[in-house]
Write a structure and sequence with these properties.
0% strand; mainly alpha; 74% helix; elongated
Length: 61
């Protein structure tokens, strides 16, 4: 019988997992927040550029 889906098999497999350290999680979180902030600023900048171009050609308000 396969012990993969038994409680003992699940505990055994969970012990094999390399859980990230607090330092790894902190670094990854900072990286994600940095990329998110960068792309937020990038898309706001692109929106301003497109709105300005539309105003120049008379489409925007």
């Amino acid at each position: 019988m396969d012990k993969t889906f038994s409680w003992s098999g699940i505990k055994k497999e969970a012990k094999r997992v390399r859980w990230p350290s607090r330092k790894d999680v902190t670094e990854d979180t900072i990286e994600v927040l940095g990329f998110t902030a960068f792309f937020a600023v990038f898309f706001v900048f692109c929106d301003f550029i497109v709105a300005a171009i539309l105003r120049v050609i008379g489409i925007g308000a």
